[in-house]
Design a protein that fits this description.
The protein has helices at about 1-10, 10-30, 40-55, 60-85, 100-105, 105-120, 125-140, 145-150, 165-170, 175-185, 190-200, 205-225, 250-300, 310-315, 320-325, 330-345, 345-355, 360-370, 375-390, 395-420. It is mainly alpha-helical and about 425 residues long.
Length: about 425
């Protein structure tokens, strides 16, 4: 009876339906249903559930998460000192000009890019990735190269993580390459995690989402594209990664330059996408206005709703908002956020989330559902980034692009449904 009451509270039973729905979707869209590795799928599924439970429901997991959150906060404070030196009073959000996104948020990416490059120079990132991969691979039976990339994607970007296995990309099987793509779509880089945390997204849940995304992307990818070949690194991957920097200062310079390019790209994309969305919404509203005038002329009492891109995608993803356990306007708002992330990117979706009057539970579950690069522009990013490292795989990358987008989205939604059962 207690368990039944727990499921009814916050409509958690719908989260169970959502979990089954994600698994059913991955199964029915699988390219080789009979080749699905049941052991791998069950093991990754259990790993996902155990990790989520340990992080969110145990004292040790909560303590570790709080410590990591404090580290992120301290790093942000360090980045803020550099921002204040360069921009002066503009960096103080309590001024009459308020919070300036280009001043307070984008420069953080440059700092974290430089820090990541420095850690990469000293081999710390490679070591952490290798240790985590050695723990994950024997449990799941995945190849060494794809496991290493999937793990690295939890804190590196979707074009940076494949650099760790660039010597293996050209010989990867279709299933391995698909996992590389899905793990890139279903995760975020550490730099952007810090940015979203600085904006006000719950940092504990951003970190948890980043960790549990690893097994989620693995079993979703292996259900959609099961392994039918023999991977070159089936037993283990001995990664030989050339460090591009010659010394510590060179590493900082390279990271800073890369971060600047990323900031310019993100800033330009935000300007273009938000402006184009505004233009499209204006056209939709104009069309609805003319349509309503025509209906009035016909003598009809029925009126068209004023459409917008968010409104349309909100209805398309309405079943997802319902399965997350929400009702009424909150269900519509969460659905709009997921649709915005899918069609544009997670940055715009998170910005909208922080502006909405959502409950704490809705903010938490939305954080998991949005925590990934799964959007249409990422298909082009992966084609450009991974395609340069493995030109012979460009045709495969293009053919798997939309399916990888689906895989990353399913992995994020699966994490949100699981967390909905636990909190």
């Amino acid at each position: 009876m207690i368990f039944f009451d727990y499921l009814v509270e916050h409509n958690r039973y719908l989260n169970l339906v959502g979990i089954v729905g994600v698994l059913a979707c991955a199964f029915f869209l699988s390219s080789h249903k009979k080749k699905i590795n049941v052991r791998l799928t069950v093991s990754a599924l259990l790993m996902h559930l155990v990790l989520a439970w340990c992080i969110l429901k145990t004292m040790v997991g909560t303590w570790l998460l709080m410590q990591l959150s404090q580290v992120i906060e301290k790093l942000y404070q360090a980045a803020d000192s550099g921002i204040c030196f360069l921009f002066g009073n503009l960096a103080h959000a309590d001024g009459s000009w308020g919070h300036i996104f280009a001043v307070k948020v984008l420069p953080v990416i440059i700092f974290f890019a430089a820090l990541t490059s420095l850690l990469f120079h000293f081999g710390i990132i490679q070591w952490v990735s290798s240790m985590m991969a050695r723990l994950v691979r024997p449990l799941l039976g995945t190849s060494g190269a794809e496991t290493l990339c999937a793990v690295a994607n939890s804190f590196l970007g979707q074009t940076e993580a494949p650099l760790l296995i660039k010597n293996y990309l050209a010989k990867m099987t279709r299933s391995e390459m698909f996992l590389v793509m899905v793990s890139g779509m279903g995760t975020l880089s550490a730099a952007l995690l810090a940015v979203y945390a600085a904006k006000g997204v719950p940092v504990q849940h951003l970190l948890c989402a980043s960790v549990i995304a690893v097994p989620a992307t693995i079993f979703i990818a292996k259900m959609l594209e099961p392994e039918t070949e023999e991977p070159e690194t089936a037993s283990a991957a001995k990664v030989v990664m050339e460090v591009p920097s010659r010394n510590m200062l060179d590493a900082i310079a390279i990271g800073t330059s890369d971060g600047l390019q990323l900031v310019l790209n993100i800033g330009a994309m935000l300007i273009a996408f938000i402006a184009l969305i505004g233009a499209l919404n204006t056209l939709l509203a104009w069309g609805c206005g003319w349509g309503n005038e025509f209906l009035v002329w016909l003598g009809s009492n029925w009126q068209l709703p004023i459409l917008s891109l968010q409104y349309i995608f909100g209805y398309l993803f309405l079943p997802v908002g319902w399965l997350l356990g929400f009702t009424g306007s909150e269900m519509m708002q969460v659905s709009e956020l997921i649709g915005t992330k899918f069609s544009i990117n997670e940055m715009v979706a998170y910005m909208h989330m922080l502006e909405m009057p959502l409950s704490p539970r809705a903010i938490i579950l939305s954080t998991y559902a949005l925590c990934g690069f799964a959007n249409f522009s990422s298909i082009g990013i992966q084609l450009g980034g991974i395609g340069v490292l493995a030109p012979s795989k460009r045709h495969l990358l293009s053919s798997l692009g939309f399916k990888a987008l689906l895989g990353g989205t399913l992995a994020n939604l699966f994490s949100a449904f699981v967390v909905g059962l636990l909190i």
